[in-house]
Amino acid sequence: MYSQDSFFDLSTWGQVGLACLSLALFALFLALARTFRRTKSFGLRILGALSLLWVFVWLTPQIYYLYYWLTFPDLPLQSVIKPPPNPIETLKLLVFQGRDNLSDHSKGLLGWALIAAPFLNFPRRHRKTAE
Q: What predicted TM-score, i.e. pTM, was given to this entire model?
């Protein structure tokens, strides 16, 4: 299914680097989504999460292109940011109706994680006080 994905054009270390970059962006956007838990409005939490997914889909291609530019010396330095995606294109990612590649499927998973993040409460660890 993913055999034609550009991920497999990378060396092993290139794949590791791309996976680390993706995990870092995933963690950053999840942390941003967690800030929406401060609001009590269900709708605002969902809207905030979907907005973050929209921003991710719109702007991160440039970050990924810069990674490929550093990896492949023959690539020209250029902007790959296109006009913002319409809401339908973004929602298609959530139901996995985008292209059959790692990128779109990962964006769908990120979208669901962003939606869940503002609703999850993790128990806080309390420091033991010395008596």
A: 0.82
